Amino acid sequence: MNLIVTIPEFRDARANLFGTVGFVPTMGALHRGHMSLVKKSNQLCDFTVVSVFVNPAQFAAGEDLSTYPRTLDSDLKLLSNYNVECVFAPTSETMYNTDFSTFVDENSLSSGLESLSRPHFFKGVSTIIAKLFNIIQPSHAFFGEKDAQQLRVIQRIVENLNFPIQIIPGPVVREENGLAMSSRNEYLNKEERSRAGILYSALLKTQKQITDGERSVKKIIDLVRKTLHSEPLAKVDYISIVNDKTLIEVQGDVSGDVLVSLAVYFSDIRLIDNITIRFPE
Ligand code: PAF
Prior knowledge:
Elements: E1 2-4, H1 7-14, E2 21-26, H2 32-44, E3 47-52, H3 72-79, E4 86-88, H4 92-95, H5 114-117, H6 121-136, E5 140-144, H7 148-160, E6 166-170, H8 190-195, H9 198-211, H10 217-229, E7 234-243, E8 258-266, E9 269-277
Helix pairs in contact: 6-7, 9-10
């Protein structure tokens, strides 16, 4: 497994990879969620490349860019248990040199949900992913379903900008109490981390409620809110039910496939989770 930090060096290494190349983009602080994507890439592709880059463009001023966990040594150790051809870990200066002025900005699926609290986020993600796709030139790229909106935005960009890349989603990997694996879980103290399982409990309740026949968006959201409010440490940012494909807010009654997603603060740590509920219209 090679650690590569510059673009020319990566291009040289890439020129020797003949076959399918699976790409797992990450910001490091790797956990079982990332590893499930690496495993998937190992199964599907001849070679696997992982990037580790904490992307400044997707953080707003006042967010956690400076404190985001940077754990390259342990990330490399973890990755050495898998079949990873190389890890691309560039510096910020490499990715954003002083005359950087070109951004990718998807304009439909990026609005709403996460954008309401983090308006800068998808432009930053879209730009770095386009750059990484151009550098890595993968045949396949793997993204977790925990970041459901991010996944859909990237699928749209690949389609709209004709990247010859197959996007492969990976299911959410959870801690024992249901908390979705995330590098930001490291910020939670022990008590918060155990209580944060409430996000998934609320989503499971919603799933049951819908399966049992409830269709009213208002009633469904009320139940999620009530469940989350039963946990005093949880502060709801948003609860949303959108059409699973268009990400447009469902009004009145739910029908078709819907994405139920939520963002909840524990202290100042913002956690997100979601569930897709599929049922015939
Ligand atoms: O999901 C993430 O970790 C990041 O948003 C990504 C896709 C690596 C882009 O920086």
